[in-house]
Design goal:
By secondary structure, the chain is mainly alpha-helical. It is built from 24 helices and 15 strands. 26% of the residues are buried.
Amino acid sequence: MFTQLEDLCRRLVHEHYGPLVEKVAAVLIEDGRLALGRIIARTGMSALSVRQALAVLIQHCLATHAQARDGARQTTYYSINLRNILRLQRAGLYLALVEERMGQFGLLVFNEVLLNGCMSISSVRDAVGYKQFGAAEKKLFAAAVAKLVRERFITAITPTDTVTKIDRTMQAEAQELEKLASVPMPKELAEIRRRIAAQDEEEYMSTDVVGMKRQAVGSGIGGAPKVVLGPDGQAIILNDVFGSSMGLPSQQQLGEADKDLVDDKQCFRVYHDRLDVFLRNKRIINYFATKYNDAAGVVLKTMLRLTETHTKTCWDKVSELVAAPQIIQHLPPDADLGGAVDMSGDRFFKDAAATSDDSSAARRATQGKMAYALLDVLRRDVSGVVNKVDERGAGQYRINFERAAVMLRDECLDTLVMNKFGSPHARIVRALRDKQKLDEKMMSELAMMPMAQCRERLHQLTLAGYVDMVELPRTADRNPSRTAYLWYVNPQKQAGAALRGALQGIINVMDRLGQETGMRASLLAKSQRKDIVAGLAQLSQNERTALNAINEYKQRIDVATIRLDSMVLLLHDI
């Protein structure tokens, strides 16, 4: 663990929850998994204060607990979740994403759940003043809550959420071992662990949404209806009176289809892993839109939207298969793909490029052919992110998230090296990444610079952690004059060096903001008075100028923090 990571996590907990919670979190960060008595001894706080601080951390999904037998006693151990602490500074990105995808009512619900850690929907209604809403607003509110739950922006709290995966596995293994009459053989123990892993995988791949309940809807005639789930996860009511039970539902049935409601008594929390998937997908879309054009970004965005229902975390290696006609069918109606690919020299697309018919059918045909061409361009990209799996018909495509993570990480590292050292150093890093182990002579030829300058820059990159070196002695005495030195890029070490720099940058930005606000503490305190908040006329011209300057400075600090946190997302969370 980096010292910068420990320092930043402590600062974030102190900023959001205060010094008492920060003191307990600091002990868990430094010492790891601890029992309650040990935490009380290390912090010097009262048992009540420690329990309350732990309750706050667990409430906001920042700490986990597990029980273990210690002789005749059952001891509860607590541990901290550093990844979720780092996500505290990503709240602005999460809120912007929810507002874009869910609207104002979705943002209202999500903001309440984010502030309180976990809440029931009934508590959210009380907090936002649901009783004051009109009939139309109540419908929009209910639709936004259902959409947040269905698309897993928020997820239901289960008893296993506050227990780590390792503890759950150990408990399941202990329960299986208790069923055996004798000591298990190695083969039996391996089979138990295989079953537990298969069960975890099945639960992970499950598409069931916890926290939803279905409202019973009467058909009016013909008896009780049959309720099934459609391909989009909505309830579809089928009734034999309206035709064959295997046929399509009528318009009345389709109108009554969406009757899934959210359980008001179920508590929900923010699903950070799912939100990180959306942020990563936006980075992938922006990369290809910048590399090619906006039309390529639209096609890739449609493909990601179709596969994101099955993508739960950023650790999934590949997406689900998507057919090319399905991608074309779900393209936005206002998507303009005209001229995205030059198809004048392709005989297959010649008619599409030359057509001047403005009818809707001709436009859809042209847009479909252009989308096929863009899919082919994305498939042939050297990054290998978009793969064509099935060659039959129009083909089926999938996205390789593992390759996408490497691509985004390399782009981030190249930008860091470019800004910190300059373009010659970035050229050296790219050459080593492509060719791997090279000596100084070959490196100077590839980077097109004198050997002395190349050697100096290689040593600078080595000290910074972006380049590594290996020795190949020609003799047993390992004489430096008879030893070959090869330079190469270690991806893990390189990402670690960049992550340390990004974390230290966030710490420096927070320190600078604290210093600037401390220098103007009296003015900021004065600006919070009720008479000043009502109107700034009571402030002098110099005070108003200084207040505007500090507000502008805070905005720039927030922008810098968001940019650095985006780097942490690429280097640490995907």
